[in-house]
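Friendly challenge for the regulars: who can give me the structure tokens for this chain first? No prize, just bragging rights.
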Amino acid sequence: MNDHPESRDPRPYSWLPILLGVLTIATLSIGTIAFRYIETRMVATAGETLAQTAAEVSDKLDRFLFERHGDVLMMARTFSVQSYNQEFQSAYVAGLRTAYPDYLWIGATDERGKIVVATDPSTVGRDYSAEPWFQAVRDGQGVHMGDVEPFAVMGGPDAIAVTAPIAGPRGEFLGVVTTRVEIPGLEDVMTRTLLAFRQREGIWGGLEYQFLSEKGVAFIDSDLEHKGHVNLKQLGLPSALLREGALSGYIEEEHEHRHVPVVTGYARTQGLGDYKGLHWTVLMRMDRRDVLTPIREVLWNLGLAGSVVVVPTFALLVWTVTRVRREYRRAQQERGLARDAEASLRKSEAHTRSIVDLALDGFIGMDTAGMITDWNFQAEEIFGWSRQEAVGRLLAATIIPAQHRDAHEQGLRRFLATGVGPMLNTRIEITGVHRDGHEIPIELAISPSLGQGGIYTFSAFVRDISARKQTEWQSRMHEEELQRLNEALDRRVQARTQELAAVNDSLVAEVTERMQTAASLEQSRQALQKLAFQLLRVQEEERRRISRDLHDDINQRLALLAMDIEAVGRKLDSPADHVGRAVREIQERVVELSDVVRHLAYQLHPSILDDLGLPIALQRLVEDFTARSHIRGSFEHKNIPAAVPQEIATCLYRITQESLNNVVRHAEASQVDVDLTGAQSELVVTITDNGVGFDSEQLRNGSHGLGLLGMKERVALVHGNLHVVSAVGKGTRVQVVVLVPAEVA
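First reply, four minutes later:
Bragging rights claimed.
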């Protein structure tokens, strides 16, 4: 045994201390490189986050200024409609100033640049015609938005001028609307975004921000100690210069005041929609030290913890190397003894091998790792693997099908852990895999044996039962064929039943779909009817207002004018003087014009309907109809409630008015009768004429005019019914039935 090379090595494992030293140096080097890489990535991540936040702030600034752009356009359109109503304009700008605190001042000028309305009364009357914002808007440049500059009128705070033109009905220039937006409103956008940024990112340390104008002047600065209008572009600050080439990004630079390394994210505003933007720059910066503080603290703690672990570990490794050397020498001595025992064991194994090779069943030996340790001739015949190929392979990968391998490995582990195995010491029928991949039925019996040192070995006896299984399979096939015939008949019956059920389901689905479509159409009809009701009510209100204006203003003025002309006529009246006659003619024309205005007001909205009620209004309508058309008309009413809802009264009046107009235009009648009757909770209006009539089929086919369609819609809005009965040569009868609320009836 002393002739082996191992016994001649005076110092085995002498290379282990060198390996420990190399590993220590490599660990420190990798740790340093990793630390630098982490620092670089943290700085890049912080820069990208700051740039993203700056871009978010710039987008919000664009949206904030776009809203102010839209506000001033809305003000200009309002002033265009009320261009000469200064009382309304004053109340309007005061309301806007109260509703929108972001506006420092709101004013409007005339076409010469003189302030006529303003939220600060002291500015009314000032001349701003020389201001660039007034000249730009007057010259047709649309909405003008100036950069940040002091607003001297309100004490000199920084503000943004937003100005829009006021145009007249024919597009003529009437003046401008101009506002001043406070800078605190812009800074509030940054404050809210910064708070959300801190909560979202969990940033340590302080954050600074600046807003730069297009020229590079910092008009908003979080550093109150150095706050002032400083031009960072002229100072050569890299972040202020880089914004010329990109919309957003970040850069490492030196702080302009504290002269420490910082990471600065920058983004530039770019406008939104019609608003072209002011090309401001948002800067957000953070000290590089604050960015790296968390990882440095973590690495410092890891370093301390590593020292506590590494030093004892290194000492343990040195002790272990010494112990391994000693054990190595002892192992060399024991190896010689093992060789003698091995020679004796080989003789015993050769005898056992001759017995196994002559067995009629296949024999397979396996160790606790599932590796094949023995393989006889019958196993070669059954599975197609030679002994040299099979020994050393996993049993599961060699003869067990893929679907049973997990169960085999789990059973082996369970036996080694508990000593119990349901498939051991019994003969079972399973499926095996031939070398070429096809499966074969086998009969298997496995027996475990406990060897020296408490290590198990397994012996498996295998028999090929393919011929027996083939006979069993043929018998089973005959039985299955008969079963398939019975099942085929059952399937045909079930298929026909399913077809009938599918047809029934289809019919149910179609009916359901049609019901849903009908419900949807009904909802659309109700929504359309509600909209039409609102439109008619707004139309009636507008008619009432115009009628009141015509009656109370223009008609009264014409009456006064007629009275004045009459007084002048009395003074000038003489038999020989033609002036008096001319004045009387003018008076008559004025009176005639007054009657026309009164009739026009009455047509727009009969005030008598609101003042004296529906019956008197219809009576007057029939009388006016008779006077104008020279067609005899009569009106009767009975059982009418004292108060009729305005919507119902207006509807019945308009239907009667439209029917009388149709008689004049189409009926060629000589007599018209109008009846208004109340019965329980209903009101009924009937208009009957003796005119030429028309074919009722045209009405049902929808080929009649828009007048009847409008009448139907108007009646439907008050939940009533319209009936039109007519025949050629037999006149026409129009009847409206409307339900009156119970509390009114």
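The CA atoms of residues 215 and 290 lie 30 Å apart. The longest helix spans residues 466-572. Your move, everyone else.
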